[in-house]
Design brief:
Helix content is 47%, strand content 17%. The protein is α+β, with helices and mostly antiparallel strands and 220 residues long. It folds into 2 domains: 3-66, Nucleic acid-binding proteins (OB fold (Dihydrolipoamide Acetyltransferase, E2P)), CATH 2.40.50; 82-203, no CATH class. The longest helix is centred in the middle third of the chain and has 28 residues, at 106-133. The protein is elongated.
Length: 220
Amino acid sequence: MSLQKARILEWNPAKGFGWLQVGGKRVFLHIRDFAERHKQPEAGDVVQFQMGRDAKGRACAKQAVHVNDGGRLTCDGGRLTWADWLIVAGLLLLPGIALTYWDWDWRKTAPVFAAISGVTYIAYAHDKRRARSRGWRVAEATLHLLEALGGWPGAFLAQRRLRHKCSKLGYQIVFWFIVLVWQFIAFESLNDWRILRSLRGMASPFGNDTMTLAPLTVRR
């Protein structure tokens, strides 16, 4: 079934439905007939949809998605802002310092993490296409695993560029937890694992003397 584009002519947020202007006629659209939403629908928004029928056989819009998020660009021609790149750079600063502090060759590790981020971005894009076509989705656990393996920068950029997974609170909580874990590990490695040493010492009935972390070789 072919896709059409139309502008929302009227929208009732209290009742969750409105009307599209399709040629010279009005077409009904209900909030439940959005395949995905990034914002509250408003009059003036442009949506892409399939023409369908309701339970009474009346014409209505189905599988609707915002084309421009009510004015903001999305995956149909979206772009990343300088703020997005600055956030990624800021989040990469501490892990980058930690990698150079310890005996890691950034010329070897940087391409590996860049590749993981690239794979993560592709996984997001694939899941986005599947969401629109109602096909088999990429499991959220798979996306989170890629993020945890170091693909979280690619995930962050994909969320902003594709407008995908950014409005799902539960998903965002896990995503930012992964990012914070990376920041914490980097911080701890630069501080001789003091917090983890203290926690292990508190958990040990024999105190700190019998519980030590494996030493790492520092590049002088």
